[in-house]
Every structure is written in structure tokens, then in C-alpha cells.
Amino acid sequence: MRQPELITREIQDLDKIHLSAIELSLRFPNDNMLRLNIAQIENRKQILINELEKSLRHYGRHSIKYIFCELKETIRIETLLEHLNSFKNLIDKTFEKVTLGKQNSLPVNFNTVFSGSYGIQLSTPFEEKLLDHDYEKALGQVMETLSNLVSSTDEKLNKVIEKDFGENRKLLNKYSLFFKKVHQNNQKIQIVWDSPITNKVKSIVIEPEKAKILHSQFSQKEKSEETIELFGILKGLSLIRYKVEFVKDAEGSDIITAKFNESLSEEVKDALDKYVIARFKVSIEFNEIKDEVEKKYELISIINYRNAI
Q1: Are 299 and 276 spatial neighbours (Cβ–Cβ below 8 Å)?
Q2: By the 8 A CB rule, do 279 and 227 touch?
Q3: Distance CA 67, CA 180 (A)
Q4: Nearest Cα to 268, choosing from 295, 236, 241, 297?
Q5: Which position has the higher pLDDT, 77 or 125?
Q6: Hey, which of 26, 79, 220, 284 has its CA 20 to 30 A from 305?
Q7: Cross-strand pairs, 65
Q8: In whole numbers, what is the pLDDT of the chain averaged over residues?
């Protein structure tokens, strides 16, 4: 069986010929031989794509199809990139979870596009492991999670999200962004994964309206608030910016910077450099730019430790 690279190269050469033929057909719309030639090229390409899929499986490479179900010929480049980037983020963040943070980018290659609907054919390299295949586990988890979410009823959706994500806000954010893009672009999506490990094909269809519901649910969980009480020392104070620095440990390595209301100014001044019991409101939110969870603290009340005894 031919190597995937050889087949992909032939497909890419055929794409160049196809593009030239399409350009000629626009200049000579009544040329029947030209139309026949285009049809033969398209038929040959489909044969090559089928061969490529068999070759990918034979040589231990995962095949992924990302399909815009209701498009036929063209798509805005912004839409294409938004979809592929957000989908790749799901894969990478799941790969990071699977490898316990040791790796955060699963290699995925673009092979070609195909028609009928507008589809993108992707694949992974061969993973050189005899057992415990991380590519398989990561892609499998992505497909299973998407399937669970898409098939869930609105009533059970919250439980599904809690089960599949727990406190993993980074992963939750990636799914939220993915569903946001599907909804915003109003495109029905189909994702098809062909595993060389199990020799099985799994397919998922995502409707824009379902993506809207999912994004709404995820958005509610991207931000949260809680109230906590901590014992420590108040070491820093700004009465201009109304901020304090609170030290939680004796070494001074764990410092919380918190804002406070002007009405607490006198209490804060009296507590400076003393052991205190401080009550904070904590706002937890995912920062997409930094790709990390951020906690913002607001000092609600403060009690001198000696007075509290």
C-alpha cells in the first residue's frame, strides 16, 4: 500500500490541475470537453481520498474529517480558521490532560479539502508507541465529550458538564469557545474520526442551535464567586488605590493582593503588620489571552486575631 505522503502529494498536484480547469471553464462555459475533464478530475480525487483514508489507517495514523455540512464550494477564510483553531484547541487541551501536562500540542496535519459538502481532511503522524497510545486517548476523549454534550437533553446538560469537566476551567473554556464559533457562524458541523488503533469510525453532527445552548451553559460556568476566610498578616497597604497585600504563610511567599472598599480604610490601617482573620470575596475567571485561571480578591472584612480570641 502506498504511503500517505505519496497519495497526499498526488492529491495536491491534482488540486492544481483542477483549479486551472475551473478557471478555464469560467472563460469557456460552453466547452463540453472541459466540463468532462473537470468531472474526471473530481472523480479521480475522490478515489485518491478513499485510498488516503485506507493508507492512514494501515500506517497507524488517525484520520479526521471536519465537514461544513451545508456548504458546497467556498467558505470565508476567517470562518475556516476560527473553526479549525477552536477545534484544535480542544484536542491540545485534552492531550495536555491525558499526558498529565507533559505535552500540550498533538500534531495534526492538513491533507486536502473535498466537495459534496465542504470538508477538510486532517491526519496525525504515526505515534511511535506500542501501548498506551496518547493520540488515541486524547482524540477519543474529545469525540466522547462532544458526543455526550450534543446528545444530552437540556435538563441533564449541567450534570454532563460537571462529570466531564469538574474543575478543569481551561478545558471548559476551550469547549465554550468552540461552541461559540459554531453558533456564530451558523454552520452545521460534522466531525468524523477514523482510529487506526480500534479500526472504528466515530461521527458527530453539531447543529448551530445546539451549539448556542451549549455555549450558554458553558459561559455560566466560566465565571464564579466564593467567599473565604484566611488567617495571616496584612503587610502592604495603598490608601490611594485601596489595595492590600495579605501574607498567608510565614515565609511571605504566598501573597494575596486584594482591593477593598474605602469604608474599611481605618480598620485596614489598624490591622497593618498584625495577625488577622480576613474575609475575601474571590472572583474566579478564565483569562483566554494568558490561557490561565485568574482569581481576583476583594477584602470584605478584617478582624484583629487577638480580638477574635
Answers
A1: no
A2: yes
A3: 17
A4: 236
A5: 125
A6: 284
A7: 121, 192
A8: 90
In the chain, the N- to C-terminal Cα span, in Å, equals: 79
How does DSSP assign 11-57, residue by residue? HHHHHHHHHHHHHHHHH-TT-HHHHHHHHHHHHHHHHHHHHHHHHHH
Instruction: Report residue 218 as a C-alpha cell.
Output: 458553558
Listed residue (183, 216, 165) closest to 83, CA to CA: 183
Question: Which pLDDT belongs to residue 92?
Answer: 96
Helices (H), the chain: 4-27, 32-58, 77-98, 134-151, 157-165, 169-185, 208-222, 265-271, 305-308
Beta-carbon contacts of residue 290 (< 8 Å; ≥ 6 apart): none
Q: Which three cell numbers stand for residue 223?
A: 465565571
Rounded to whole angstroms, how far apart are CA atoms 309 and 304? 9
Pairing mode, strands 63-68 and 118-123: antiparallel
